[in-house]
């Protein structure tokens, strides 16, 4: 048998088993070549397709999850910057005594741009800071919403409350910004 790999003067083992049943590395020979088990190529050909079909039968993707994924991809925008959620009143604020159903307050930040949003059962109310005109789209599910315009002070309102997962896409003169997805 030859020595370890990488030492000067060592030979590389051969793929041929010797008469002891062990190859040159000292491991029991399997008789398989570099293409995989019993000569099957693992580059993704027919075996991969057969495994995909088996997974589709045994563990299919739920239809509603597939639909949500397809609808989310429609809103995919490669040029958009992501606005990070920096404040959420559900997790960051102290409860206010006497308010039965307080509005949800959200703050998103992307670079120097901040978006403050109040989410209520009646819709959205928000402001883009620094103040500037923008077009805001409420993304979410299969329900289409009309874009709303922010005025020169950056204020905007929407009479449609978000339901389920939602995000905002803002288009300003300089940028396209998409907020993180949240559940209403």
Structure write-up:
With 184 residues, the chain is α+β, with helices and mostly antiparallel strands. It has helices at 46-58, 63-74, 89-92; strands at 81-88, 104-110, 113-120, 123-129, 134-139, 148-150, 155-158, 165-171, 176-179, 182-183. Strands 1, 2, 3, 4, 5, 6, 7, 8, 9 and 10 form a ten-stranded mixed beta sheet that branches. 15% of the residues are buried. A hairpin with an 8-residue loop joins strand 5 and strand 6 (148-150). The model is unreliable at 1-6 (pLDDT under 50). The chain is globular, with a radius of gyration of 29 Å.
List the helices and strands and how they pair.
Elements: H1 46-58, H2 63-74, E1 81-88, H3 89-92, E2 104-110, E3 113-120, E4 123-129, E5 134-139, E6 148-150, E7 155-158, E8 165-171, E9 176-179, E10 182-183
Parallel strand pairs: 1-9
Antiparallel strand pairs: 1-2, 2-3, 3-4, 4-7, 5-6, 5-8, 8-9, 8-10
């Amino acid at each position: 048998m030859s020595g370890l790999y990488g030492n000067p003067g060592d030979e590389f083992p051969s793929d041929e088993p010797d008469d002891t049943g062990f190859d040159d590395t000292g491991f029991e020979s399997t008789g398989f070549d570099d293409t995989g088990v019993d000569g099957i190529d693992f580059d993704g050909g027919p075996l991969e397709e057969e495994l995909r079909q088996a997974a589709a039968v045994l563990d299919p993707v739920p239809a509603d999850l597939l639909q949500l994924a397809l609808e989310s991809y429609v809103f995919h925008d490669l040029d958009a910057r992501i606005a990070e959620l920096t404040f959420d009143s559900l997790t960051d604020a102290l409860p206010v005594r006497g308010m039965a159903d307080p509005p949800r307050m959200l703050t998103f930040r992307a670079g120097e741009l901040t978006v403050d949003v109040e989410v209520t059962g009646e819709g959205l109310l928000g402001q883009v800071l620094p103040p500037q005109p923008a077009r805001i789209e409420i993304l979410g599910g299969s329900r289409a919403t009309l874009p709303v315009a922010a005025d020169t002070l950056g204020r905007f309102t929407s009479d449609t409350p978000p339901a389920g997962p939602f995000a905002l896409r803002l288009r300003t003169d300089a940028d396209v910004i998409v907020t993180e997805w949240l559940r209403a």
